[in-house]
Amino acid sequence: MTGPHALKPFLLAFPGPLRDQLVAAVLAGEKTATTGLLAEYEIENEELPEPGERSALIDSDGREVAVVEITEVHVLPLRDADLRLALGEGEGYRSVAEWREGHESFWHSAEMREALGDPEFVVDDGTMLVVEWFKVVEVLQPGG
User: Fold this and answer.
1) Which intervals hold domain ASCH (predicted)?
2) Neighbours of 79 (CB within 10 A)
3) Domain count, the chain
4) Are 83 and 100 in contact, with CB atoms under 8 Å apart?
5) CB–CB of 26/133 below 8 Å?
6) Cross-strand bridge partners of residue 136
7) Is residue 36 in some structural domain?
8) How distant is the alpha carbon of residue 123 from its chain centre?
9) Which of 50, 79, 86, 143 is most buried as measured by Cβ atoms within 10 A of its Cβ?
């Protein structure tokens, strides 16, 4: 490995309590999947991740806390989200409906709408998602 600083950042949610909760779930081995909007990648002109790619998991303070490796990437419409995904998100969802409610709330938030540049943004069954499955390959000590 060339060191965590050579890795692109793996960001979950926005800095704050939700990111802290998600990072803790990753470090505890409970969160092994994350879902983003394809629109985010398009707006940022960012390439989709690929299996085998490694990234540095970033906490709310901007610190690299772990190295994660992508194991699977799927692009699918929201309607195709399944229970495996809901459980893999590691946020305590017990059903796809709970998972969808939680994610729609995040995607419809003012922060997300601002990031997308669309104050009226809403998701529907056809909204395309990017689902990343990953594993922690190294937990980094404070200070890198």
Assistant:
1) 12-138
2) 12
3) 1
4) no
5) no
6) 68
7) yes
8) 17
9) 86
CATH number for position 132: 3.10.400.10
Buried b / exposed e along 13-34 (16+ C-beta atoms within 10 A): beeeebbebbbebbeeeebbbb
Q: Which of 32, 49, 40, 37 is nearest to 91 (CA)?
A: 32
Task: Report whether 57 contacts 64 (CB < 8 A).
Answer: yes
53 part of a folded domain: yes
Q: How far apart are CA 50 and CA 14, in angstroms?
A: 23
Structure tokens at 112: 């997300």
Residues 6+ away with beta carbon under 8 Å from 99? 81, 85, 86, 89, 91, 93
What pTM, to 2 d.p., does this model score? 0.90
Expressed as residue numbers, the domain containing 131 is 8-139
Residue with tokens 């990437």: 73
In a domain, 96, yes or no: yes
Which DSSP letter does residue 79 get? Answer: G
